[in-house]
Amino acid sequence: MDNYTERMVDSVARDVTGLAEFECSGFEVDGAQIALRYRATGTDGRDHAFTETITLPASVAAADPDVVEPIARLLHLAAALSYFKAFAPARITVPSGLTHQERHFVTEVLINGLGEFAYVNNLPEVFDTPIEAPDRPDTTGTAPEVLEPSRLLVAVGGGKDSIVSIETLKAESYEIGLFSVNSYQPIEATAEVAGVPLESAKRALDPTLFELNKQGAPNGHVPVTAVNSLIAILSAQALGFDAVVFSNEASSSFGNVAWAGRNVNHQWSKGIEFERLLRASLPAESPQYFSLLRPLSELRISRRFAMLTDYHPVFTSCNRAFKLAEADRTSWCGDCPKCRFVFVSLAPFLSREELLRIFNGRDLLADESQFEGFLELLALDGLLKPFECVGEPSEVKVAIALLREHPEWRSHAFLAHPQIAAIEVSDLDQAAVFAFDEEEHNLWPRIEAAVREV
User: Fold this and answer.
1) Burial class (CB in 10 A: 0-12, 13-18, 19+), 354
2) Model confidence over 338-361: pLDDT tens digits?
């Protein structure tokens, strides 16, 4: 494989005749409240019921139900995976039926969005999950000619990518609002610096799921961006925005490992394949959905973010900032794949003092205990690219090449390690990392012109 490491699947035979049963029971939309209902019967014969609640920032009661209902159906299917995984491998049933496109949607989101979960739990059977549902007629109609949107709801996660999107759109005088699913201090601080109102939805998982996890039920990564994207689209419908903007870059389409005949990608629901799938599944007259930074690499985005100094004290990409328990939160833990990637991707474009100020005085490259973590980012010594939202190994290699030329970093001991010193980067390699991808995006001409300036 040319863009991810290949691993062989464990060939242990498994009995799949007695599968658990998982049912997408239904959903209700009541103003700003959405209830998603599921049922399951485990292989032990025990029955379980789950209700997830979504609270939108505004009511959809006045919106066209022929738009709201199909989007809510997609949300019901995508959110199901958080509960399905506790019973995997299992058979999925959808008693209300599926249209041809909905069947395609849930199949792709399940197979690709749960790839990491299947890999980590050694459950390749997940890729062959039976989905049973009667055929449902497609009544969403043909989408009209898509005009360039003017009111844009920008998803914000508190990191550098969405900040670059915000400033790119502000510079072009677009009317924008900011959006998050649940809210945390870095998100709120980003909105404050941007001077743009923040609208937040709330997602509350059924607490029964956490009890099952404590009891040892299979657990792991789910395609949360798929769920958040659909919540954002419903929120845009409620608030009167005509498009939802995410900030997923070209690097998110790059996989982690080839396993069981699949490309397992931690970031699949951030990649171009999911973006196209969702766009094709939305009903006519739905708010548009696209990623602004799709044609760009993480390193090119970091270069632009380095100039946005007002945001440097408030942004974070570290998952520790978003822990459920407030006492467990910190802006940067300084010892995880995301911290390491942001550190090395910003280093070529900042002074040493500026970068260390962001990371509370810590030089991650000088911490020998993290050296193997940097090798993982480079996918060297047979190591896998981390299952995290980080850039491609080629980008890290180019960042290291740029550090060799940086007056404050070129004599750093990290660069003298034999594995690092052996890295070779050509001019063509650098050009490829900073190139604009002409094909893999869904941008309108005016927006595309603005992104080319990033």
Assistant:
1) middle
2) 999 999 999 999 999 999 999 999
> 430-442 pLDDT, tens per residue?
999 999 999 889 9
Sheet holding 5-6, edge to edge: 5-6, 257-259, 262-264
Q: What is the pLDDT of residue 142?
A: 55
Is residue 283 a contact partner of residue 434, using CB atoms and an 8 Å limit? no
Which single residue is written with the structure tokens 């070129």? 410
Q: Which of 118, 117, 123, 92 is nearest to 105 (CA)?
A: 92
Section 197-223 average pLDDT: 96
pTM higher than the cut 0.90: yes
Where does residue 285 fall: left (phi above 0), alpha (psi -120 to 50 degrees), or beta otherwise?
A: left
Rounded average pLDDT over 161-175: 96
Per-residue 3-state assignment (H helix, E strand, C coil) for the chain: CCCCEECCCCCCCCCCCCCEEEEEEEEEEECCEEEEEEEEECCCCCEEEEEEEEECCCCCCCCCHHHHHHHHHHHHHHHCHHHHHHHCCEEEECCCCECHHHHHHHHHHHHHHCHHHHHHCCCHHHHHCCEECCECCCCCCCCCCCCCCCEEEEECCCCHHHHHHHHHHHHCCCEEEEEEECCCHHHHHHHHHHCCCEEEEEEECCHHHHHHHHCCCCCCCCCHHHHHHHHHHHHHHHHCCCEEEECCCHHHHCCCEEECCEEECCCHHHCHHHHHHHHHHCCCCCCEEEECCCCCCHHHHHHHHCCCHHHCCCCCCCHHHHCCCHHHCCCCCCCCHHHHHHHHHHHHHCCHHHHHHHCCCCCHHHCHHHHHHHHHHHCCCCCCCCCCCCCCHHHHHHHHHHHCCCCCCCCCHHHHCHHHHCCCCCHHHHHHHCCCCCCCCCCCHHHHHHHHCC
At 10, is the pLDDT very low, low, confident or very high (cuts 50, 70, 90)? very low
Tokens describing residue 100: 């041809």
Q: Where do the structural domains in the chain lie, given as residue ranges?
A: 297-433
Paired strand residues for 394:
none
Per-residue pLDDT of 397-434, as tens digits, reads 999 999 999 999 999 999 999 999 999 999 999 999 99
Q: Do 343 and 391 meet the contact criterion of CB atoms below 8 Å apart?
A: no
Confidence bin at 390 (pLDDT 50/70/90): very high
Structure tokens at 263: 């490309």
